[in-house]
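sorry to bug you again but im stuck and you know this stuff better than me. below you get a single protein, a line of residues and a line of whole numbers that encode the local backbone shape. mainly i need to know what kind of three dimensional shape the backbone takes. anything you notice is useful, everything is just below:

***
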Amino acid sequence: MSVQIEMLEKNMAKLTIDVPAEEFEKAITRAYNKNKGQISIPGFRKGHVPQKMVEKMYGVGVFYEDAANDVMPGAYSEAAKESNLDIVSRPKIEVTQIEKGKDFIFTAEVAVKPEATLGEYKGIEVEKTIVEVTDEEVDAEIKKAQEQNARELVVEDEAKDGDTVVIDYEGSVDGKTFEGGSAKNPPLVLGSESFIPGFEDQLIGVKAGEEKDVVVTFPESYHEKSLAGKEAVFKCKVHEVKRKEYPEIDDEFAQDVSEFDTLAEYKDDVRKNLLTKKEEAALNTKKQKVMDKIIENATMEIPDPMVETQAENMIDEYAQRLSYQGLSIEQYYQFTGLNEAALVEQFKPQALKNIQSRLVLEAVIKAENIEVSDEELDEEINKMAEMYKMEVDKVKELLDDNAKETMKKDIAAEKAVDFVAASAVEVEAKTEAEAE
């Protein structure tokens, strides 16, 4: 096999890959052997028709497609390695010669990783984020703890907004029940707006043991088109009404939910934790603002196929996350009305941003000679072991050289972000008058 490399515009390259005729002939024979069991010609037993007879009957190119699919992956992989190009997209393949007795020739058009040329990247000016914690925010956080420690009690009186009712219901439209319109014993929090608009409001005032017809109209935008805009009647039977009983927010409450003896001490700790979270969020915001300006100041020519490949990779990761929730990407397309091409377009802006960030960080790493020590790598591995509750030595066994190299690159990128953020100059936000 031989490969010729032609560099194209916009960081694209074309590999012309030549597979010797003898090698392609062997692939044709493999294709014949793979398919011969399915071939029937009068006068021959099924699976015993000679290759030449099949080619005579069906044309000399009958096995070309299978043979091409056989040799192309290996030939492309070898050619990509031989080219020494940093390929960052899936290849666009085109067959240019496929004939009996001749070399099989095809081209692979690929994107080559570009480099970013840095503009200004040190001393970037960004607006300062004011970090403060208000009394209202502290109270809201304590209110969450109160909510989490509430008890739910069965009550005999009328259901109020915020109560939970346990009901059976059966819905009908024009007197006919419909799929998904009935259920037994689901808990429903009144005021949660988790059911069709108007449904929950009509259950306020019911008691356990009562029955009530709830009449609602499905929204015009309802996902089930056959029900959109239709009036429905839900026959409901109330089994239970439950109400939350909240603990008093006092010293005793502080002792129950924290390590502190008094409410004042607990509030101080809540304030401190909120401040820490806000400071971390402000630092992340600062880093993002700095990165946005560095990207804006840099020049780089990113080929479209690189962005498309990145978007496709992001979709693969998204599909993996969906699978953890028991949902396939095909089901996601069905629910959303999207398809793969539409989802790729949605992911492209973020894919471009990710590529730009990585390229400028690599340029900063190079410009500032940022290196990662073995100790820093070990520290990251220790964090990983702690996260997955594994022995450190076991984690090290599972990481090959490529994985460790990837980890080093990620650590270097984090150090580069920290470097440019630390060198940034925070300025006071302009007033509206100053901005004008």
